[in-house]
Amino acid sequence: MPVEIEALDEFRHRIPRDPQYGMRTDVLVFASRPLIEQIRKDLSLQQAMNVATLPGIVGSSLAMPDIHQGYGFPIGGVAAMDWETGVVSPGGVGFDINCGVRLARTSLSESEVRPRLKPLIDQIFRDVPCGTGGTGFVKITPKELDQVLVEGARWMVGNGYGSERDAELAEAGGALPGADPRQVSERAKERGRPQIGTLGSGNHFLEVQFVEEIHDDRAARAMGLIAGQVVVLIHSGSRGLGHQVCTDYLAQMNSAMKRYNISLPDRQLACAPIHSPEGQAYLGAMAAAANFAWASRQGILHFLRGALRRVFGDQTRVELIYDVCHNIAKRETHEVEGRRRDVLVHRKGATRAFPAGHREVPEVYREVGQPVFVPGSMGTASWVLAGAQGAMSESFGSVCHGAGRLLSRTAAKKGRDARQVQKKLEEAGILVRSETRDGILEEVPEAYKNVDEVIEVVHRAGLARKVARLRPMGVIKG
Amino acid sequence: MLQFEILEHPADIGFRAFGASEAELFENAALALLSIGWELEGIEPLEQYPLSASASDLELLLVNWLNEVLYLTDGKRIAVRQCRVNAINSTHVSGLALGEPRDPDRHRARIVVKAVTYHQLKAARTPAGWLADVYLDI
Lengths: 478, 138
What we know:
The complex is a heterodimer.
Chain A: E1 6-7, E2 12-15, E3 27-30, H1 33-39, H2 44-51, E4 57-68, E5 75-82, E6 87-88, E7 100-109, H3 110-113, H4 117-127, H5 142-151, H6 153-158, H7 164-168, H8 186-192, E8 205-214, H9 217-222, E9 229-236, H10 239-256, E10 272-273, H11 277-312, E11 318-325, E12 327-336, E13 339-348, E14 351-352, E15 371-374, E16 382-387, H12 389-394, E17 398-399, H13 409-413, H14 418-427, E18 431-434, H15 437-441, H16 451-460, E19 464-477
Parallel strand pairs in A: 3-4, 18-19
Antiparallel strand pairs in A: 1-2, 2-3, 4-5, 5-13, 6-10, 7-9, 7-11, 8-9, 8-19, 12-13, 14-17, 15-16, 16-19
Helix pairs in contact in A: 4-11, 5-11, 8-10, 10-11
Chain B: E1 4-8, E2 13-19, H1 22-37, E3 47-54, H2 58-74, E4 78-88, E5 92-101, E6 115-116, E7 122-126, E8 129-137
Antiparallel strand pairs in B: 1-2, 2-8, 3-5, 4-5, 6-8, 7-8
Helix pairs in contact in B: 1-2
């Protein structure tokens, strides 16, 4: 189906509401013209139109500049549902509930790390388990898992895997309220329990980077970032536990939708009214899975600290800057057309980006805006941003979450050899260690859009401000 | 007859499975899922693990069947070499997985399969036999 799209300005495009298609609202795409041309090549805009058909949607169905085709919801999509009359959609959160990114700064400089990069990457590869074949190092009992599901990162901190400050500096304090472990199936618990503190595979990774450019001195100072400093970015989610929660509730909602008189263009969009028994059970299970993810990333940070100290000495400081999730549904208050509305914001491949002054931004960042981390591809760059006022007025406090894929995994592998890719990256000063051969090939830099172009859009559209550009030195992948 | 082929997806991966019967279709779909996630060569079919699934139609049944296989590998930590279907109709399937308990030293993952999706899901009889399209989240 050809998608009619109109340019509103240099960075905003609109697909007008089509009632015949069942759309209840417009689609608003934040993208430049060249990005729009790339975005049009897959089904993502049609998926954003499908999201516009969901009952109770408030404002527009939003697409970020890194949008690409997902299942049901596009990846890089944001949709807010009225808290009283709207629906919750597990597909609008994704299989990897609270997939997210945390960034830690170190007391090391690029020039100190570069000569010992290989032993460092080898050490991290030994100490931070990917968990694709085996299990992690955090051993917890089923009873402890139930505590993790309620307390999130705080449970890890209380059990020796980090400091109090780590939990404070995660979105939602590392634990969403309302988590209900009873709504998480035994299967989900069985899948997740041995995987806590492991990276996973696909696009998940741990990257040692250095600060290449500072774009906003004040915000960089608040985040403790200086040029040449080594930082570590961790991208991981809720592992098998979250995947199973989504699987379980998609099946439940697919069979419940008839009862609620909901019919949708795609089964993967399955949803239920927020206040239905299915909706409430999902939200309890989703919060539990989100808390598992924060705990898991806290475990990874703990093992990373150990690895850095083994190589560079016990005095090495590794401090968490912040932790943001990019697959989540959260109850928030936003102003829509001059009215304060209580909404459930689905962010599927989109990051919260609250501006300066917002009470949910930790005090240390309250004057500059919430830190946002946008990883690029393996060989290019990642960005640190700060949430801006534009996000509150236009995108339910949200921005992009990555570069966005351009090539399919099979296309990325075609004609490429893992060793050659590894060698080419090494020549560019980037060491890669992967537990699986496909892990390197599928994530080659050429498979992604240019992250700088994506960032330019959110910066110039006023959704977030550039703070720093980070360059990779070493990558650990599942 | 070809057992399955890979289908492209911008972010993830899919497969088209074939079969002369519904039973063979379900066996080959399971094989496609297993081959995407694991290097199957080192897995010995030493033990049998029962599998069964129910659903209101054949497409949903296929997703539920594959979810059972995925749970066996990711939840029960079994290295599965292949699956056999013993009985199938449009709403119920039962069979076996053949494999062994996973040994991280011998069994290598290719990629973590997170889930089986309903995206562009298809399972139908064609003049050439049965075929199914399934996309996985990875």
